[in-house]
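ok so i was messing around last nite and threw this chain in just to see what happens. nothing serious, just curious
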Amino acid sequence: MAEAADFQGTSASPARRWLRRTGALLAGAPLLAGLLQLPAAAPAAAASGDPVSVALDSMSPNAPTDGDTLTVSGTVTNNGKQAVTGAHVGLRVGPILNTRSGINDVAQHPDELQGVSGSEVGDKYAQKFAELAPGVAEHFSISVPVDKLDLGANGVYEFGVALSGQTSAQPWQQVLGVQRTFLPWQPSDADTRTRTTVLWPLLSTVHMTAKTGAGQLQTPVFLNDDLAKELAPGGRLDQMVSLGKDLDVTWVIDPDLLASVDAMASGNYRLQGEGDTTVAGPKEHQALAKQWLASLQKAVVGKEVVALPFADPDLASLAHRGTSVTGSLSHLKDATDVAATTVKTVLHVTPSTDYAWPVNGAVDPSIMRVATSAGADRVIARSDSLQETAGLSYTPSAARPVGGGTTAVVADAKLSTAFEGDLTKAADSTLAVQEFLAQSLEINAQTDQQRSIVVAPQRLPTAAQAQAMAAAVRALQGGTWSQAQDLTAAAKAKPDPSATTRIPSTSVYPTYLRRQELPASAFEQIARTQDKLDDFQVILSDQSRVVTPFGRAINRGMSTSWRGQSDDGDAFRNGVEGWLDDLAGQVRLIDKSETKLSGRSATIPVTVQNNLVQPVGHLVLRLTSTQPTRLKIGGKAYYEQPVDIAGGHAQSVKFTTSANANGRATVIAQLYTEDGQEYGAPVTFDVKVTEVTPTVMLVIGGGVLLLVLAGFRMYTQRKRAAARQAGEGGAGTAGEDSDGPGNPEAPGDRLPEESDSAAGADDPEQPSDPAPDTAPESTDPSGTGERVDR
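result:
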């Protein structure tokens, strides 16, 4: 039963620790530490305020075997106010630790003077200091043959580096500082080796926006240039690849990272600036990205590669807050579908997409349902979530069938969290490596039964954490109690029938993780953005130019990157939706002012502007009269016409109208998609009808009749005059002399207006003819009082 606690990674109970420490104090109390000068007086020295800190910066080899020489190095620092004299650093081998909880206990209090145990290896293997001045750090390095350590049975030994000395206030030899760690001892191959799977996560935060340039290459726009810093020599991602290439690990990759680096490698990427501005990314980063991708392609050859859904969607947030929003699960399916294609295109390997990985391996029934909804049938959980309840005395294998054809691959919590925290200091890194190896060896020593153990570290290890992880994995692979195994083999391994398969309830999901989840409003905005994208894409001639970048941006909007970063997540999703609104707004109706009709029928033009670089179509423009009794469009209340516009152009669509009465009628122009969905904002304008009345028509008709009668009278008079002139000309020369060219014509014989009337009859320009429509390329609103003739 004790080992059940060991598996959970718990330490010895506080009461037991208190009893042990109290016993040590009581045992030393009767002794006169100042007179006997025994190490038992060390607690008093610590309490006096004059401790010395000991930092163990390196330990090589991490897991020695027969014939090795162990070298430890580090620093000692006098934190007190008095100089320490007669000091020396010595090595101490403590008792063998037979349980994982015992290892935990030492790891939680590595520098407690009360915990000093074991005797020094010997003066020959010690480093002496004549004096340690206050506040001064002194370096030490000690090498000792392993056979001088008097190690016995195989197992994990407590190992300490202690500084002993004296001060003027306490002039006797005492332990003033100690650093305890672990010495794994398995000099020969174990009878049964633990099969160990180490996941090597290659993920990053979100870097790309939804914006792309208008050119054929669609230049990507990045949020910032942080990705280049990670790819640079010594950067986090550079370290993950350069360290991982020589390790037997399973690569777990976010395809979004590959897509982002590939976009940078293609060149001409841009960085988001102030407002809507962008600036060009440094050209040297293109070579940086290319080199990193080339290194990664070589590193994964022959290794198992697991592709997470694109942008690593937050499964727990989706399960707890997103499933109530229609369409949320479809985004997970899209992210899963595109994952394999992205990895294969960039890395030229075929990845496995069978795995889902909730944050920290924390699961509950809702998370399991969501995780498997997109096709994954293996969920990477962790043992501090899927806890053992059967009181096993050993750590069971990772694979657990949990029903419905789903396998929970349960990573060991203690091994998986061994490299969290700040490991920038060498001492912290060394302790993390030694504890990891100690836990691994202790797991192997629990039973002769071979088991498959999985290590799933934090998603985004720092460069220092990656270095510590790599050091531990190298030592593990070169050790004698473990053998490497890929994740698929671990998932297929025979499950332990005694291991728990019960998924914990939603109520026990860790509170600190729940507080970091994406809010429900995030999924509502994602759904709204998707609806807008669906409406927009139907009018495009090349949908991929919009659907692909926005589809991936929507995936990024539900990424684990935004856990605990609610403001940044909101800003990103707002940016995606806002940019989509801007693009959709590039196809719009041009505003119109009041239009005047001077007759019963006329043609009204409405202009549609397309400022996109690609043609648009599948649109219908509807013109609706709000007062069809006064003004009809195409003979009815509304009329529709299809719209197809080339990129960067405008088109005037003409509608025939008919007026039935004078006055002002309001007209609404609205674009629709072919499936009847409104597109964009409507344009509303007034049409002022000035219809001609019957009285005016009667007056005009009377005038025309008078003109006709007058013309007929002049015609008959002219005929008579011509006949008379012809008769007089035949009578003789007398008539000829009287009507010669020099004599003026008689009044009323010729009307000067005759030629003007004839010209007017042949003139094709009539007041009733329609005026030309607005030119297609005009994007300005119609002028005030725009007049449209019949």
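not much to say yet. Residues 694-729 form the longest helix (36 residues).
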